[in-house]
Amino acid sequence: MKRLILLPLSILLCVALVQFSRPVPVNATVGWLPISPEDLALKDNPKQPGADAMILYRESIVDARKTGSDGDSVEDYYRIKIFTQQGTKYGHVEVPFNKQWEDITYVAGRTIRPDGTIENFDGHVLETTVVKFGGLKVLAKTFTLPDVQPGCIIDYKYSWQAHPGYVHNQQWVISADLFTREAHFTYFPYTGYGGLGITPYYRLYALPANIGPKQQPDGSYSMVVNDIQGIVDEALMPPKNAIEPRVAFYYLDPDDPSPNAPTDKFWDKYGKKWDGQLEHFIDKRDVLSQELAKIVAPSDSPDVKLHKIYARVLQISNLSMEDYKMQKEEKAESLKPNSNVEDVLSRGYASEQQINYLFVGLARAAGFDATEVYVAPRNDVYFIPDQKDPGEIQTDLVWVRAGSQEYYLDPGARFFPFGVLPWSESSAGGIRVDKHGATVVTTAASASTDATIVRDADLQLQNDGSISGTLRIDFTGEEGGLVRTDERKEDETGRRKYLEERIKDWLPVGSTFEISKLANWDAFDQPLHVEGTVKVPSFASAAMQRMLLPLDLFQATNAGAFSPERRVNAVYFPYPYEEIDNVRMQLPAGYKVDSLPMQKNINVGAALYEISATTQGDAVQVKRHLVMKGVLFTKEQYQPLRAFYGAVRTNDNAQMVLANAQTATNR
User: pLDDT tens-digit profile of 321-336?
Assistant: First the structure.
């Protein structure tokens, strides 16, 4: 869960499609670039053979000169060559926008067939609702170009118009999901009312050193790029914001530090500002001391004191985590804003950040060195201090030192046990604040033992090859915290449904799982515990007087990500994790074990796998342990990882052979 620390001048939104309908006028006067016979005849991308499509030409013109009277505008133009049937999907276009601040004012398009004939887009555009949060609707304009077939070229253009009076931070995203042969970018900056000469600044991300905007005599900025590889969407890939090349334009508020300041001085200014906010909020020493006396005993060890303080602040109603109820409750209960820790303690509710502030105040009252840390969550970006981009700082947590031991904690995240951070905040870069300024830090890395799924099953194998029995699962640490966070808005029925579907995904096709017990939902320091009945209709297959069945019941997490032979991006696991399985299977009457696969142990340093099967009277016990210790792997390391998960799959599916008693005696 993120807490927005800085309010940027523009809010950038990523959306997913749902539905609604509304037409957009077509601009009949829009002009198109001429099409060469060579492009019409093009059968493949010579620089990326086998591609489904490629962007032949792209242009983006951002104009902020009339922000005060008309609003910012952006005009985008795409020309795409379609090579395959799969590539025809690019004839369906989605343009996200936020109706509160902007609109899509026109759309134009056409399809050019391989013989050069043209069919123009008819102007039918759908307006679809894509996101709803805080009462705000986020929409997309969607349209489909006519008769898009392999060999065609499609042209489309649309204009985005902001409402007047808002200065937006704009960016050129240089890459798309397709290879781009040629792209032109232009930015006309905002200069203030009456041309007061407000200076725009820009930052470069993931661009070669010799590429960047150039200012033109008319004050605009322009850039031309060629042969830009597309961002290929793959499972377990780094966040797009961290790898896509882009240019971000921005303007400074009067109290912002200069981007030309040394990196340490730049962050010091923010550090002092944020430290001042913290100090103001917790400046109630008597109140904190009185509360602390209720929480800890003088004889408690430092570790016990911190655990008790952590548990206490988790009792505060977390309004940020209860956002689905906030508007209704604020009206019904007239919730007042908190000005300090005294308000938090007396009212019993707070935002995530205020809960962290309270922890810092209580920890300091107990004699600990404690403060706030502001981080760039690594599910979105990798923090690079020299970029001097405060917009990357999106969340906060707590740093505390007890003797020689340092802790990174986030009680404001609510659902995570003491010492376990939400994965996006672990190994994350940011700044620790104090009255002197800021210290650049990287938060503590999580261990595989901080995120485990423990599965324990008692099963009965039937003569028809089906199995049924009891399955117990414990989601510990990170795993439990993520489930609780994602499903916090659901009632118990919704939570059970989610968990049943997730657990069925681990099982063979056609399996069922029905929860009989869900425990520890609100005990965040305990594993989230699930019990239920599992049924697998065709787990074993019959061959003569024998039955053959795979060694393990469950599908390995993330194994599907390693099915492709080739990899484009680095491999990025969100967090280290472990799977621990203990399965006991009662054999059907008249059957005995004929053969069991040998025990397997695979250790490749960053990953470990063990599996074994033993007989216990007329039952078989299978124990399995999978450990992933690493997080980020280069694409050159993909093949060893793929081989590891391939070996896991092979050994999970290794066959046990059962024979009926008569067959075993005859042998």
Answer: 874 454 455 555 678 9
